[in-house]
Request: fold
Amino acid sequence: MSPEITPAYVTTPIYYPNDIPHLGTAYPTLAADILARWYRLCGRETFFLTGTDEHGKKIQNAALRRGCSPKRLVDDLSEAFKTSFENLHAGYDRFIRTTDDDHSRVVQELLRRVYDNGDFYEGIYEGLYCVECEAYYGVGDLLDGCCPLHLKPPEVLKEACYYFRLSKYREWLLHYYREHPGFVLPISRNNEVVSFVEGGLDDLCISRSTFSWGIRLPFDERHVTYVWFDALINYITGISFLDEPATFNKFWPSATHIVGKDILRFHAVIWPAMLKSVGIAPPRRIFAHGFWTINGRKFSKSLGDVINPDYLIGRYGLDPLRYYMFRAFPFGADGDFSEINLVERNNSELAKGLGNLLQRTTSMISKYCHGVIPGLGSPDEMDDELPRAAASFVSEICLAFDDLAFSKVLDAIWEFIRRLNIYLNARKPWELAGSDDQALLEKTLAHAAEGLRFLTTSVTPFMPGSGKEMAARLGFDEVPKTASLVWGGTLAGAQVREGEPLFRMLELPEPSSAEF
Reply:
C-alpha cells in the first residue's frame, strides 16, 4: 500500500484533568489536528485520538481538596477539556478517558500478559516521588531539593509494589533505535534518549499500594496500576485493541505520538519495552515538541502561569491563534509566547498578505469578469513560472507535513504568496482593465485564482475556518484535496463570491486586560 493511501493514526498525550486546560495543552492537540487534517486532505483514512489521564494520587489529592470523589472531579473536568478542544476546532475521532470501561479491560489484559511473561516481580519502593509529575526522582535530579519542573519538594515514599523488568530491554531498545532512526523525532531528542538508555536502566515501579484511585492489578488486587502503565496503554485502547482487532491492525502501524519533551522518556523507553513484553510492535514514531514558555518558564497549572486559550480566541480569533502557534518558531523547539508577535504576524502576514491577495483577486474577477473565473488561456513565459513554482511548492509542503515541520510548511506558503503577489504586481491587471487586452487581463486573474486554489488546500490544516471560506469564495463546495493540486483550468467558469476581509487588523490590548 503506498504512503498516500495508507491509513494514518495521530495521537496527543492524554492530559491530567486536575484543573482547567491551558495553551500548553492546546499546543500538541492542535499539532495533531493539523497533521490529521492534512492526512485527510491527502485522501488517507485517519484516526485522531486525544483524551484525559484520570487516575493516580495527583487526581485523588485534587478531589480531596475540592471535597468530591475522584470520579466526580474527572467527570466534570474532562468535559472542560472537550469544550476547550471544540473551541479550538480540534477534530478528534475519539476522546478517550482512562476511566472508560474498555480501557480498564485493555490495561488489565496487558498486565496479565506482562505478568505471564515473567516481567513483573514484587518489591519495596523507597525514594522520592513528585505527585505533580507522577514520576520518581533521584537526589541528583532535583533542583535545590525540588522537582525541576514543578519546583516543589518531592514526597519520600516507602511502599510495597510490583516492578517491571525494564532493565531486561536495554539492549533491545538500543538495537531498535539504531534500526529505526526515525522512531524518535526531532533527531536531537533521539540522541538524548539513546544516551539515557546507554547509561543503564533501572527496573520500573508499576503499582501503588497506599492509595486506591486506579485500575487494580488483575493478579493482586491490593495494588493499583502506576499511572504510566495505565496511561500509555490508551494509545491501543483508542483504536479498539481488544474489541475490533481489524481496526487496531489497520491504524497501529502508522501511529504518530505527539508528546511534550518532558514525557519523552516514558514514551520512547518504557512504552516500547512494555509493547515488546506483550508482543506488540512499537508505534511508527514519537515526536517530542518543545515548551511554550511565558516569562521564560514552562506553562504549568501548578505554578499558576497559564494562558487561557478562550481569552485569546475571543480577542484575536481562532485561526490567527492557530496560525501563530506554529508560525512563531519551529515545532520541536522551545519558544516564548508573545501577544505582540501574534498581533504583528496577523496584521502583516494574514490581513495584509494572504487576506489581501484573496480580496483583490476576487474583487477584480467580480469587477472585470462578471464574477466568473476565466480560463488560463495560452501561457507565456511569465505564466509558465507559476505552474513550476506550484509543483515545487506542493512537493515541499508534502515532505514538511510528514516531518511535522510545520514552520517549513508555512515558510513555503509565504514564499508562494510572495510569488503570486510579484506576478500580479508585474502584470498590473488593474491597468490592463483600461486597455484593449481583455485576454491578458483574464489570463492574469485566472492564474492568480489558480494559485489561490493551491493556497486554500495548504492553509486549511492550520486555519480550517479560513480555508473553508477561501474555497467558498473561489466557487468550491469544499476544500480541494491534494490530489487535485495539479496546475490546470479547474476553476474556469466558477463564480467567485466577495465578502468582508478574511482577516481583520488587530490591536494589542492594554497590559492590564490580559487574562493570563
Q: What stands out?
A: The chain is about 45% helix and 15% strand. Residues 8-307 form a domain with the Rossmann fold fold (CATH 3.40.50.620). The first strand starts at residue 8 and ends at 11. The chain has two domains: 8-307, 339-484.
